[in-house]
User: Fold this.
Amino acid sequence: MNLWLIAATVLLFGLVPCAVVMLRGSIVEALVGLQMAGVLQTVVLLLLAQGFHRPPFFDLSLVLALLMLAGGLVFARMLERWV
Amino acid sequence: MQARSLSSSSIGRWNLVAIWLAWWSGLAVVWLLLVDTFRPEELAVGAAAAAITATLATVVHLRGYIRFRPRAAWLLETPQIVGNVLVDCVLLAGALWHKTVRRERTQGEMIRVPFHHGDDSGRDGARRALVNFAVSLTPNSYVVDIDPEGDSLLVHRMVPVPLDRLLLREQARFLRAHPKLPRGDDS
Amino acid sequence: MSAGSIVVPVLVALGVAIELACCLGVLVMDDAFDKLHFLGPAAIVGPLLIAIAIVATESFSQSGVKALLTAALLIVASPVLTHATARALYIRRRDHIEQDPRPRP
Assistant:
């Protein structure tokens, strides 16, 4: 266990408030919670990649950040009028 | 936004080459940063991938879907924006403190800021996009909507503070574009 | 104890603290418009601090560069997503698809 893995474990607890917001809030609040969870997971993957000393794992966080942007925009556009 | 037909494009041939080269260089640099090697086969694949994407991007430019011509001088705003991001983090921390520890009612506000929308040119399009980006980057405020007919920005902010330099400058631009309007306050 | 062995843990701790504080902000704020503000520091400052910590450890190796690229992508994505989500909420309330939960003065 090193600093990076400890930090990643601590950050995972941040998913709990995000889940609460997604379950209890309105649909747009749920989207905010989802985006927050996405950011959190990107940072967790960065920390895990560094903690396990596996440079290829950094690609996971990069791809997640990209997909989070695209997915968030799709959700936001759908929520404007169609859901 | 109406697309231009390929034959009637007003973008010159050399401008197209410059656009293609700019895209290709940027993409090739990103490829090199990601693969972190100078092996010939990696360079060849990167060059080919960058060429395909640069071609697609150039076609999009040619069709006029992107009208984005920022001014290099706008980069001078960057230190101010970075400073505002840090200050706004402190403001949000204060709001969170008031909400969680002092249990006070904390509510943001929506304000309308006069904003000259401009036309469909690349310069005005870039200005709208970058103002939106800069205001939304700072945590205490973000742009909710841009009203083209009303020439205003709808901005939500968590903690009421005076308008920053960027919004004041856009407000001044609006007043220059509408000299006959009565001058009121900014909210 | 070298400067690097102090700086890196401090940067990581600060980054984690900012992320968790922003999660708390998203939870406790009443309105979706207010919650959205906390995406900013979470996507901009937190990842940047952690990326800088990784670069301080690994220098500008593949790991360091990719960490910075990820942070840069999040910095670019955050205002775009915030604006898009805010606009969706504004349209929903304006068109009465969703009610404003609190009366505003």
